[in-house]
Write a structure and sequence with these properties.
alpha+beta, nine-stranded mixed beta sheet, eight-stranded mixed beta sheet
Length: about 900
């Protein structure tokens, strides 16, 4: 299921050490010496962890043997040594799970010996979904020798059997060979189009696997080069053809996906669907109608492929399938990263989703009791054309559920939107199917209830139900997607959306438009000049993000005056009259306050301008379009080289972006000299960096930075620093962010600075500690480290984008302004600071301090402290109640981390006199 990111690697290792070696998946070990081996015949060769299976075995030694001397073995062990998992003892010490139902006996007076065995459930259940089991079961998977051993005569009858989750489960390294076999068989049987590609690689370098199945190559080419471009540019043309019945033959894509690889059915059901539609002429399945009666559906595959293109993405997260984890190896739940796109897997895959813009998507998940299928609950993201989506998604979801229970032993399903009041919302767009809805896709998360054969069967059935529903309703569904694009192209804010957007009281509030007639602006302008833009580096990143996600971006070809401000040539423009305007706006608008709801699934604020820290201008035109004819479309980002006056000896790097921090760390690693400005002077600010021109010049094309000549470094107060020694005992995501800034991490004993969002340092003396969020606030308070320190937390996970007042003169807040927007998912604030502490930031004391998010009870945070620092005898503690590195998206606050680290770095010798003369 998509809820709650938890790391289980440590727990896995604890459990694994408790497992007897012989109980883990191993090659067979002979218990006795044998001189001869004969074949053991068996009634089935695949055994299951989730289904009790009887197995009949037969062997013929060619002569009579003493049955009393025979021993049945599995994996080189006697059967009664194979014990069920004992959760209390954390070991395999329960009752035996392999039973002899009928002892070895001779068959009809022959020398043939038979026996009947029952292979039961090693975990005492046919549901492996509980986390305590899910981190263990893969240790049992593999090939084992099943043997009937006659030790007296040193002979045995043996064969190899497979112990699997269920028959269709594949390890990651088995998936590509399985795909290859399907391709080979299909090439011999038919002329269907099959295309394999790897859309990218995981953190560990494993290929993702994507397969396209279509009628023929022309169908794919026609969709990508003709149908889709027209749909995005002039959707009215295709809408007219659909209405007139003149569309002719056309094919549209549907997408099958997995992102949580330890929710295993979500991968394996795709292999089954690919096999059936690549190889068979007819595909039949059972669905359950509204009266609870089973009905058989028979699909002619050629007719289906006359209408549909299949796309299978077997998983966003190959590493997770290998390691049996929900998260990628960086510790990120990728189903929270589709909007942020900080991880390589989501960056690569979402570019392909945008390329195809599928009509429907099904993503396989687990494990929610009851068999849940989306659509989701309120509150809904206002950037969806929700009326058009729901008219297709609700009946399609029912078709999926009915086919799921008809094809399995499951007896019921439910739609989150119909059974839940809240808590399973689609306000946050980070989940793959919900993010796809911003492409106009009918996106469904499907949560099977158990990790089992039954749930696998239900997942396959749900996929067949979606295929059949789209096949039968293609023109109607595609017409709705085209109308979504049409509203975007026309800039239409259709009020049919409003009744579906409600508050917690069930009242329709519609899109929150404020003083505007249209929820969507006409344009967003992203300036690139230093006067109007506080962080041009993130502008380039944002534009690259928008382009790869299918959003049209333009650039001004001359200076443009909007209101009282003139924006120099080269500003980026996002025109909001375009098909993907909902996706663009969901990333760029401020967000909404949904704090009235009792429950929320996950954080909802995306707001790249605030959380990445760049200036954006919301442009709304009157009768005159001042940008018309003054822009040209861009299809890639060309980042200009940074400017360094190499005729001068020293440069000041403004502390304005994360690229500058990365550059400083690169120089320090190379042993170059770096100074930090300690006073506002010559137009330079406290926290800016001083470097040699010859040192920084080679990096002009690698990093985006603002450099200005330093007239005379000996006339300004500087602190020259060595490379900081940094450690973190915090989350994997915090560690990722620190590494992203270029810090080399060491162990705590060697560190000068310890950064954490989880724990206190093992030893504080002589160190600087930077703590983030309520877990650390609680630890500091409970340990009594700071007399007079008090804090309050409404609840971890309460989220808000809030107005803050910053102590901009303090070195730890260098590069920030007095009025800023801060972000938190911690639900915390500081109510009292110790005597002598320096306050770094406060929540603004005005009634409008809260901008967006879900934070019941946030009203009490008004005017409260968010961050402070205090020097102790030989150590320093800096505490932030807000987030600085949340899921690597809150990059605007990274420099607060960097400032805190650099401020505690050891001093280094200053350059020799004369080194800075010009």
């Amino acid at each position: 299921m998509k809820r709650f990111l938890v790391g289980f690697l440590a727990l896995f290792m604890v459990f694994a050490t408790a497992v007897p070696l012989s109980a883990q998946a191993v090659q067979s070990v002979e218990a006795v010496q044998v001189a001869d081996t004969v074949e053991l015949d068996i009634s089935r060769s695949v055994l299951s962890l989730t289904e009790i299976r009887d197995v009949t075995i037969e062997a013929d030694f060619g002569r009579e043997v003493d049955l009393e001397n025979l021993e049945l073995q599995f994996g080189g062990k006697a059967l009664d040594e194979w014990k069920q998992w004992n959760a209390d003892a954390k070991s395999y010490s329960g009752e035996p799970f392999i039973l002899v139902k009928k002892e070895p006996h001779y068959v009809d007076g022959t020398t043939k010996i038979a026996a009947e065995l029952e292979f039961g459930l090693p975990f005492g259940t046919d549901d492996l979904s509980p986390r305590s089991i899910r981190v263990l079961y893969k240790e049992l998977l593999g090939d084992y020798e099943l043997a009937l051993v006659d030790s007296e005569n040193e002979v045995k009858a043996a064969t190899t059997v497979e112990l699997n989750v269920y028959d269709e489960f594949l390890e990651w390294d088995e998936i590509k060979p399985s795909i290859d076999r399907i391709f080979e068989e299909a090439n011999e049987m038919n002329d269907r189009y099959l295309h394999y590609e790897s859309p990218g690689k995981s953190v560990e370098g494993k290929d993702m696997h994507l397969v396209v199945l279509a009628k023929d190559e022309d169908a794919v080419t026609n969709y990508l080069e003709n149908t889709l471009p027209v749909a995005l540019e002039t959707p009215e043309d295709l809408l007219a053809k659909l209405k007139e019945g003149t569309m002719g033959d056309y094919q549209i894509p549907i997408w099958f996906n997995n992102i949580h690889p330890d929710e295993v059915e979500g991968i394996d059901f795709q292999t089954e669907l690919l096999k059936r539609f690549a190889l068979e002429s007819e595909v039949s399945f059972t669905t359950t109608n509204e009266n609870g009666e089973d009905e058989e559906v028979v699909l002619n595959v050629d007719e289906v492929l006359d209408n549909l293109i299949f796309i299978f993405n077997f998983s966003h997260n190959p590493d997770g399938r290998v390691h049996n984890t929900r998260a990628n190896v960086n510790g990120f739940d990728l189903n929270r990263d589709n909007a942020y796109q900080t991880q390589i897997e989501t960056i690569q895959l979402n570019q392909v989703i945008a390329k195809w813009t599928p009509l429907a998507m099904m993503e396989g998940h687990g494990y929610v009791k009851g068999f849940l299928i989306e659509p989701a609950t309120p509150p809904h993201n206002p950037n969806f054309e929700y009326d058009l989506l729901m008219e297709g998604m609700i009946p399609q979801a029912h078709a999926m559920g009915q086919a799921g229970i008809g094809s399995s032993k499951l007896t019921s399903y439910f739609l989150a939107s119909e059974e839940y009041e809240d808590g399973w919302d689609d306000m946050g767009p980070s989940y793959t199917p919900i993010f796809s809805m911003l492409h106009g896709t009918l996106g469904h998360t499907v949560e099977v209830p158990t990790l089992s054969q039954d749930s696998y069967d239900a997942m396959v059935g749900a996929g067949l139900g979606m295929i059949n529903y789209v096949f039968e309703n293609k023109d109607d569904l595609y017409g709705r997607q085209l109308e979504i694009f049409n509203r975007g192209v026309k800039g239409e804010d259709n009020r049919a959306v409003d009744p579906l957007l409600t508050n917690a009281a069930g009242e329709s509030i519609g899109r929150v438009r404020g003083e505007h007639e249209n929820f969507f602006p006409d344009y967003y302008v992203l300036p690139t000049d230093s006067w109007n833009q506080k962080n041009v580096s993130e502008v380039y990143n944002m534009v690259e993000y928008l382009i790869r996600n299918g959003v049209k971006v333009e650039r001004t070809t001359e200076d443009v005056k909007i209101g009282p401000t003139t924006y120099p040539k080269g500003a980026y423009v996002v025109p909001m009259k375009q098909a993907k305007r909902g996706l663009a706006n969901a990333m760029l608008y401020a967000g909404d306050d949904v704090s009235d709801w009792a429950a929320m699934y996950d954080p909802v604020v995306v707001n790249f301008p605030a959380l990445r820290g760049f200036t954006i201008v919301d442009v709304r035109m009157g009768e005159e379009d001042v940008l018309e004819g003054l822009t040209e479309q861009v299809t890639e980002v060309a980042v200009p080289a940074s400017v360094v006056d190499e005729r001068k000896a020293m440069q000041v790097l403004k502390n304005v972006n994360n690229d500058t921090i990365r550059l400083v760390n690169e120089l320090l690693k190379d042993g170059k000299q770096v100074g930090i400005v300690q006073e506002d002077k010559f137009g330079f600010k406290v926290g800016d960096f001083v470097v040699r021109s010859e040192d920084v010049a080679p990096f002009k094309d690698e990093f985006v930075f603002e450099a200005t000549v330093l007239p005379a470094y000996q006339a300004i107060d500087l602190k020259w620093i060595a490379e900081p020694k940094v450690a973190s005992n915090g989350s994997g995501q915090l560690i990722f962010s620190l590494k992203e800034l270029g810090f080399n991490l060491t162990d705590e004993e060697q560190a000068d600075v310890v950064v954490s969002d989880s724990n206190l340092p093992k030893e504080l003396a002589g160190k600087t500690f930077v703590g983030i969020g309520n877990s650390v606030l609680k630890a500091v308070h409970d340990a009594g480290l700071l007399e007079g320190f008090e804090y309050k937390t409404t609840r971890g996970g309460h989220e808000g984008l809030i107005k803050a007042t910053v102590n901009a003169d303090h070195p730890l807040m260098a590069g920030y302004r007095q009025d800023e927007l801060f972000y938190t998912t911690r639900g915390s604030w500081i109510t009292a600071v110790p005597e002598g502490a320096e306050v770094l930031a406060r929540v603004k004391g005005t009634d409008d301090f809260y901008v967006a998010g879900w934070w019941p009870g946030h009203e009490d945070a008004k005017g409260q402290t968010l961050a402070f620092t205090q020097q102790l005898d030989d150590s320093r503690i800096t505490l932030f109640a807000n987030d600085l590195a949340f899921r690597a998206h809150t990059k605007y606050y990274y420099r607060m981390l960097a400032n805190s680290i650099f401020a505690s770095a050891e001093e280094a010798p200053a350059p020799k006199p004369g080194a800075g003369k010009n």
